[in-house]
From TrEMBL:
Enzyme class, spelled out: hydrolase
Catalytic activity: GTP + H2O = GDP + phosphate + H(+)
Role: Involved in targeting and insertion of nascent membrane proteins into the cytoplasmic membrane. Acts as a receptor for the complex formed by the signal recognition particle (SRP) and the ribosome-nascent chain (RNC).
NCBIfam families linked: ftsY
Organism from which the protein derives: Nocardioides caricicola
Binding site for GTP: 182-189, 264-268, 326-329
Protein name: Signal recognition particle receptor FtsY
Compositional bias per record (Low complexity), positions renumbered to this chain: 54-66
Keyword Protein transport: no
Amino acid sequence: MESSLLLILIIALLAVAVIGIGVGLVISSRGKSTPPVVEAPPVDTTPPVEAPEAEAPVAEAPTAPTLERPEGRESRLVRLRQRLAGSQGGLGRGLLALLSRDRLDEDTWESIEDTLLTADVGVAPTQELVEKLRTRLRVEGAPEDARGVLREELLNLVGPDMDRALRVSGADGRPGVVLVVGVNGAGKTTTVGKISRILVADDRKVVLGAADTFRAAAVEQLATWGERVGVDVVRGPEGTDPASVAFEAVKEGVDTGADTVIVDTAGRLQNKAGLMDELGKVKRVIEKQAPVTEVLLVLDATTGQNGLIQARVFSEVVDVTGIVLTKLDGSAKGGIVVQVQRELGVPVKLVGLGEGADDLAPFDAGAFVDALLG
Ligand SMILES: Nc1nc2c(ncn2[C@@H]2O[C@H](COP(=O)(O)OP(=O)(O)OP(=O)(O)O)[C@@H](O)[C@H]2O)c(=O)[nH]1
């Protein structure tokens, strides 16, 4: 009996030992510092997302190593006044010679009229001027100061009181927007470049929009103007919708805190409806960002009546607020200033006086008449 009890006890102890070893093994295997099971990341079947590429730059960074300094205001104006007098002086000298004759007979008055008409003063303004001079001479007698009388009357004709200030500033922290329109070859792109230089010389931050997208060369030309003075030029590929380039240019101007955005446009004049659509859209799209503060119509002074016809069409499709008369250096027909202002009821604000980069001057009625009188 005792031995069977002993046997049971041994068996029981063995059983406990076996169970204990088993449990110990389990516990030890759990407690072992096996690396935690890292769940395999779910396999992403979507294509890898690449880091966003920098957006295709619309604005060209200036690449010119050294920037030009545009000519300062004072020296530019002195130089250009001399050039204006050189090109236009003939009209005044001719008139003065005629007015200073001892006898002012009908032939002389006719010659005075012809001189004015040849200088593109236009029929109605010419008749007006001659009538005034005749009356004054009748009432006041032969003038001792023929030059003074002529100066006064020419000045009245040119409009000394017209507001010729360029609206290049915007409101509410937004840039001023200058839209430049006109037919191809009138000097639009050149004028946009020249205006940007004047503004840069005044320490203003400028952005240019190359919205003349129908001629790749015009875009390149504008880019070069910008590079020379460190001004950003916003452009699109050839044939891009001009309105989208104008929009991007003004957007860049707003985003970068520019003072002025100048937008060059294509002046395709095949038909009035097309032009109206194009310029109308450009203006509408710009105005989603900032109001257009100035619409400048560029006219080639050497084109006479043709230029006037174009001017009329443009003024019918877009609200022109100022005229730029280019190539006045190459023409003795400064009288076109009078005609075009009458025709459009809009002042000449700037005159182009050469192909040089700084050959653009604000139009000053007094200085202009002095230049006419030589
Ligand atoms: N002499 C002189 N030439 C000028 C003046 N303004 C522009 N030009 C020249 O006129 C030519 C035409 O000028 P652009 O600026 O290319 O004319 P555009 O109207 O932009 O013509 P597109 O680019 O074809 O639309 C260029 O050779 C200019 O150098 C000026 O005031 N005087």
